[in-house]
Design brief:
Helix content is 79%, strand content 0%. The chain has 468 residues and is mainly alpha-helical.
């Protein structure tokens, strides 16, 4: 026993002699991590420090954060796992651990981690928002709304959260949806146009006694603000509520195409076509069914059948100017520009005080360089008289004067467009073309550069051709 007591101090000193340099190097690694010039280097130093200072298990989470910022998601995941095993994962760590799995294309595992994070003491309320997004992507909208309601309860000033919750609740609780949407627009006025659109749809739906029609109206409102995934769910509910509602099936077909976006494949088109055929079998005399079928054929490049459907629709609803625009577009794609022009012109006679239809007529003339002087320019002038101070209309009129080789008029309107909106890429491009045609190359070059930087693809083509 006496020998053991004499030996212990020696063993302690030996252990200290061996471990002290390791611990000292660990703190050196920690200092280097805090001063590192890049996320990746910082992560490596935190990782090394955590191994050398075993009582600082929190450093594994810090290493995970740095790997996260460096977009090294697999490495971040490994570090968060170490922090978890050492029971050193914080509330924000649970959020980040799920994030890296989500960003690494593993949403299922991310959701498991976030759910597990909610079981911890004092969890982050960010987990509610994350899970709401996950459930929405899985199209479990009621579950998504449930989690988002928990998030909103502690984030009363988060306009986007109120707005998202309002969108979700349109499918299950329109009154609560309206309350959330109004709150969102009161916090952030930028949301007001979309909120007003949905408010009108929800109020109109509430006046209709048919559940199927209510969902059609709500779905159309969601479609107007480009929320096509939710619109699709609304139209599915409409068709389920009344399988003989032709317009519900037609809108369902439209939503399937819209929600697929540019990634629409043969399967999407086939499913949409089946829905549209079902709609036609239920009601051949619905202008909505005919018009939506026309849009379908137009998208797949079958302009002859598209024209037939639009013509059928207009016989059923002859006062709808949008149908004449669709007819005009179909005629133009079939090469019949005279009939196309007549259709666009007739649309303006139905709504002579609507600047939008005069603008469409003017754009058609500009696009095909057709009847510029007698139709295109007067149409653009009429649109601008109705809707003054509109940079897009100023640009359109300037473009038409440019096509007419009336350069002073073109320059005046294009400069006015840019005065109203300096970020108008089309106006920069058209002004560049005007300067190029009037042999002011230096000015043209500057406008093309600006147009290109603002996303105008044509500008890069012109720069490559005239300014190699």
């Amino acid at each position: 026993m006496r020998n053991l007591l004499r030996t212990l101090p020696i063993l302690f000193l030996l252990a200290l002699a061996v471990s002290a340099p390791l611990v000292i190097s660990g703190y050196s690694e920690l200092r280097q991590a805090q001063m590192a010039a890049s996320y990746l280097v910082a992560a490596e130093h935190y990782q090394a420090a955590a191994w050398r200072i075993p009582w600082r298990a929190d450093l594994y989470e810090l290493a995970g954060h740095e790997y996260y910022y460096a977009k090294e998601y697999a490495h971040a995941d490994a570090e968060y796992q170490k922090a978890f095993r050492w029971r050193a994962l914080t509330a924000d760590g649970w959020v980040a651990w799920g994030d890296v799995n989500y960003l690494n294309n593993n949403p299922g595992r991310a959701a498991e981690i976030w759910r597990q994070g909610l079981e911890q003491e004092n969890p982050s309320d960010k987990l509610y928002s994350r899970l709401a997004q996950t459930y929405q992507e899985e199209k479990d909208y009621s579950k998504a709304a449930e989690y988002l309601q928990r998030y909103v309860a502690s984030h009363l000033e988060d306009a986007s959260a109120h707005y998202r919750l309002g969108l979700l609740l349109t499918l299950s609780d329109p009154n609560a949806a309206l309350s959330e949407l109004i709150t969102a627009s009161q916090i952030n006025s930028d949301l007001d146009p979309a909120v007003q659109t949905l408010r009108s749809a929800l109020n109109l739906a509430s006046l209709n006694g048919s559940p199927s029609e209510q969902f059609v109206i709500i779905g159309r409102g969601l479609g107007l603000i480009k929320e096509w995934e939710l619109a699709l769910a609304a139209f599915e509910k409409a068709a389920q509520a009344d399988g003989k509602n032709a317009e519900a099936w037609a809108w369902l077909g439209e939503a399937k195409q819209q929600s697929a976006g540019n990634e629409a494949d043969g399967k999407n088109r086939d499913e949409a076509r089946k829905d549209l055929d079902q709609a036609l079998s239920l009601n051949q005399k619905s202008a909505v069914v005919r018009a939506l079928r026309g849009l379908y054929f137009q998208r797949v490049g079958n302009n002859r059948d598209a024209l037939t459907e639009f013509q059928s629709a207009v016989t059923l609803q002859p006062d709808d100017p949008s149908l004449y625009v669709s007819i005009g577009e179909s005629y133009s794609k079939l090469g019949d520009l005279i009939r196309a022009l007549e259709a666009y012109q007739y649309a303006t006679t139905l709504v002579p005080e609507d600047a939008g239809y005069w603008s469409l007529l003017a754009q058609f003339c500009a696009q095909y360089n057709l009847h510029i002087t007698d139709v295109g320019i007067p149409a653009a002038q009429r649109a601008l008289a109705i809707r003054e101070q509109d940079p897009k209309l100023e640009d359109l009129l300037g473009w038409l004067w440019l096509l007419n080789a009336s350069y002073p008029d073109a320059e005046r309107h294009l400069l006015r467009a840019l005065e109203l909106d300096p970020q108008n890429a089309a106006a920069h491009f058209h002004l560049g073309m005007m300067y190029l045609q009037t042999e002011r190359r230096d000015l043209a070059y500057g406008q093309f550069i600006r147009a290109r930087d603002l996303g105008n693809a044509e500008a890069q083509t012109v720069l490559s051709q005239y300014f190699p």
